[in-house]
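for the writeup, i need someone to sanity check this before i put it in the appendix. the sequnce is what the collaborator sent (i think, or maybe the updated version? ugh). structure was predicted straight from it, no edits. if anything looks off just tell me and ill rerun, i have time this weekend
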Amino acid sequence: MKNVLLVCAQGISSHLFLGEAKRVAETRQAPLHFSATSLAELTPELIAQQDLVLLAPQAAYHNQIDAYTAQNVQVAVIPNDIYGWLNSEALVKFANQTLNAVVAPAMASL
């Protein structure tokens, strides 16, 4: 199971994604565990527990991210088309691809 942290500026949009992303990952049998936080709640300890940190586009520029991600954690910005439409299926697929995970047969249909 890979840990994926969704991060946005205030924590609102990341939490909107969270429930549906969990449902999609479970339905598609994707080996992903999603959690969400805001920039204000982001800590080096929290990042260290992750395999992937996905940033909302408005959070990607933050200096705090650079300081915390010197650890061996992958970081990516959620593409605008996924973020703008709150497309949880595309988010799960993007996370899987970013992690270079082995795609389960159920994920191929996303």
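The mean pLDDT is 86. The domain at 2-99 is CATH 3.40.50.2300 (Rossmann fold).
thx in advance!!
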